[in-house]
Amino acid sequence: MTQRILTGVQPTGSLHLGNYLGAIRNWRSFLDSHECLFFIVDLHAITLPQDPGELTASTRRAAAAYIASGMDPQKCSIFVQSHVPQHGELAWVLGCSTPLGWLNRMTQFKDKAGKQKDQASLGLLSYPVLMAADILLYKATHVPVGEDQKQHLELTRDIAQSFNSRFEKEVFIKPEPFIVESVARIMSLRDGTKKMSKSDPSEQSRIHLTDAPDVIYDKIKRAKTDMDLLPGTPEALENRPEARNLLEIFAALSGKTLKETCLHFEGCVFSKLKTELSDLLIAELSPIRLEMEKLEADHGYLDDLLQKGAQKAREIAGETLAEVYATLGFLKAK
Ligand code: TYM
Description:
Blueprint: E1 4-9, H1 17-27, E2 35-40, H2 42-45, H3 52-68, E3 77-80, H4 86-95, H5 100-104, H6 107-113, H7 122-137, E4 142-144, H8 150-167, E5 176-178, H9 213-222, H10 241-254, H11 258-265, H12 270-297, H13 299-328
Parallel strand pairs: 1-2, 2-3, 4-5
Bound molecules: ligand 1.
């Protein structure tokens, strides 16, 4: 069986450090061992209102971010979700047998819909069904994501299982989530109990891949801390979410464990950690930012590459959808 990776990011605004450490940076490790499909998730993005011009630019920017972060287009396919019509088609089929109760339980829906559930769109509710379609269309064996997507992956497995059982046929493969625990949840720089997120109204809460060095210095300098000196062990980080977050980011970037990082900063003031952390962030992100700027300026190159990626994706997706339609008993189109 082909070991296949499928994963992606929504093109809403610029990608941030949470997307990078929790997801994109880990994708590279699959390039030589798996068939890799990386897509830009624009159909999901419109579950919340998007500015059309900004959506186009963000889609190209996401493609540039993937390539600049090491996704060598010779070794993987990169495509845009809306370029492959089978995503929407399979989502309809799966939606017809997914109980509403399963969808109402999704924490992301509850968070995004807020108190006015009746005002939330059908798209927001059925978001996880489209995500299941994304994954099942390609019979992906592994899906690298951050911790916030774990529940959606579990739902995908349930949807696959229920379809296979109903038709007594292994049409879908149940995907395994791939989550790197140490970076699965990068937190806001303004509040260590909240996830770093594109939807946070404060720009100071996140580092973008496109931030220049002075912006990175400034955001880290202003990052929330507490009044104590830094501890020598991870155990002492309980109830110190901001210290934990900064130390975890440092550990991820330096290649040290959290334990080694704590030892390194034992008894130090936050400003020492902040200076060293800014240096590491700038060293990691500057080459990516510069490469992204170059790539983003070359629409022709990016659009051709995305078209090639979509062709490949449509081939695989078309085969799976034909199998699904045959299983359902749909009359074959001539
Ligand atoms: P999105 O665009 O919200 O996030 C993209 C990836 O970044 C991870 N991530 C984080 N990881 C650690 N800390 C954070 N603060 C943080 N914020 C985001 C996410 O877990 C994700 O891996 N529903 C998905 C997009 C999607 C998808 C798919 C992914 C649609 N279909 C099929 C994989 C397979 C989403 O909204 O990602």
